[in-house]
Design goal:
alpha+beta; 14 helices; 3-stranded mixed sheet; binds magnesium ion; Poly(a)-polymerase, middle domain; binds cytidine-5'-triphosphate; 2 domains
């Protein structure tokens, strides 16, 4: 009887892996969508160059790191190579006016936001049935680097890493726990949770720690630092593939089930910081503790319920927007997912549908 139970469970896990692949494949952007987005980027770059001739417009976020789903928005970053350049606030205002005049985009310049950006959107059309949403920021070089880091992690083990990340992005959107504005976690935060789990929780690890691998040749601080932060990581993925391989043979389904189990039960939310650079850190050590002495409205307490250290900006908690209620909901969803996957031994496809309903 016990043997039969085990066989059923093994079949379920194998089926679940196949269902996960099939599920995410149909959600990938089409070649046409990617081409349209690249055309939009080029058009915007041409227009920006009429204001700042020495500028470049680069993609970051999911369009550039391999974790893009159909209709995900475009994150663009404008870099200006000359020393004499307009202040970001002025550039945002001027670019906003120009785009309003010259294009069909709906334009919303936010020159006074913490990071000044121009928000753009395009209505649906036959070639673009769901339109486009796009943010243009300025000089955000750290975001370009963290995008490259995530892309390298995806390239090491595309099947397992991309399937897990893409599934979690869809799942968190469908379960409505993917809005930093409403107190839950950004996609970027979920990706970091996955990488943390694959580098530091799984034993043997599924991924190496790219930020701690020895460099191939001597490097200086000048080579590695950007805005005062160490942004070095091992990025020769071809070479890495020849020299490193994971001893972890778990399937995507096994990893996903364990991911939900770990974040519903084992991650020390009250005291711990998930750092992909260093592993598990203490909130106390980073000055991110939930300080009870500060009274009811203590800001740091509200900001540090869930702590995920940015890979480069190590004084930045990527999950700072997650509120008490937000974390309660997120943990509830992790528990629900772990439960659905452990108590639905019938058909994997039904479990998956229930997970994302
Ligand atoms: N980013 C960041 N710090 C944050 C949030 C985001 O530096 N707190 C940067 C990262 O470079 C990230 C990019 O902004 O890759 C986009 O973030 P986000 O939209 O959350 O992730 P995507 O992968 O683009 O997800 P989606 O497809 O849902 O837009
Ligand atoms: Mg994005």
């Amino acid at each position: 009887m016990q043997r039969r139970g085990l066989a059923v469970r093994m079949r379920f896990v194998a089926d679940l892996s196949q269902c996960l692949f099939d599920f995410v494949i149909q959600l990938l952007p089409t070649a046409e969508e990617m081409a349209v987005k690249e055309d939009v980027r080029k058009l915007l770059e041409r227009l920006i160059r009429t204001i700042e001739p020495d500028s470049r417009l680069l993609s970051f976020g999911s369009t550039a790191n391999g974790f893009s789903l159909r209709n995900s928005d475009m994150d663009l970053c404008c870099l200006i190579d000359s020393k004499e350049r307009l202040a970001a606030t002025d550039l945002v205002t001027m670019l906003g006016d120009l785009l309003e005049r010259e294009t069909k985009f709906h334009v919303k310049p936010l020159p006074h936001a913490r990071i000044p950006i121009v928000k753009l959107s395009l209505d649906p059309s036959p070639g673009l049935p769901l339109g486009i949403a796009c943010d243009i920021g300025f000089e955000n070089r750290l975001a370009l680097e963290n995008t490259r880091l995530l892309m390298c992690y995806a390239m090491i083990d595309p099947t397992r890493v991309r399937t897990m990340v893409l599934f979690l992005k869809v799942w968190s959107k469908r379960r409505k726990i993917n809005s930093p504005y409403k107190g839950t976690l950004s996609s970027y935060g979920y990706v970091l949770l996955v990488i943390y789990f694959l580098v530091h929780v799984k034993n043997p690890p599924v991924l190496p720690n790219l930020q701690q691998m020895p460099p191939l040749r001597p490097i200086t601080t000048e080579d590695t630092h950007l805005a005062g932060y160490n942004t070095w990581f091992f990025d020769d993925i071809e070479l890495l593939r020849q020299r490193w391989h994971s001893d972890n043979t778990e399937t995507v389904a096994e990893l996903l089930i364990d991911f939900f189990r770990y974040y519903s039960r084992d991650f020390p939310y009250n005291t711990g910081v998930a750092s992909i650079r260093t592993g598990l850190l203490k909130k106390e050590l980073k000055g991110w503790q939930n300080d009870l002495s500060g009274g009811r409205y203590n800001d740091s307490r509200e900001r540090n319920r869930l702590c995920i250290e940015d890979p480069f900006e190590t004084d930045y908690n990527v999950a700072r927007c997650v509120t008490k209620d937000g974390l309660y909901t997120i943990r509830g969803e992790f528990m629900r997912a772990a439960r659905v996957l452990s108590t639905r031994p019938e058909r994997a496809i039904i479990a998956l549908a229930e997970l994302c309903e």
